[in-house]
Amino acid sequence: MSQPSWDDVVEMPDELDDETAEALLDDATEVQDMTGEVCPYPQVEAKKAISGLSPGDVLVQKTDHVPSTENVPKAVGDDATAKVWKSGDGRYRIFLRKE
């Protein structure tokens, strides 16, 4: 019997391809490095940052904490749309576009 993967239990937002993720990172309004941080700190920081952005601005959170890929988008709710990029080596970027 095989073990479930994170993809089986985590409701991550739509994934981005590498090229799109790099372009969005280059144009991001704000980047937060949350590597090594666990919930709820990334959610709190994302909510604070999103509240200070203008509509259309992009916040990027870099993380290695898989639950953040689900919890951060939920925390910002309807204030931002979310997409995720995963590197394949345990690193993620959460892209949040302010509504």
TrEMBL record:
Any Pfam family the entry gives: TusA
SUPFAM superfamilies in the record: SirA-like (SSF64307)
InterPro entries: TusA-like, TusA-like_sf
Domain of life: Archaea
Domain UPF0033: start-end pairs: 33-98
Name the record gives this protein: Sulfurtransferase TusA family protein
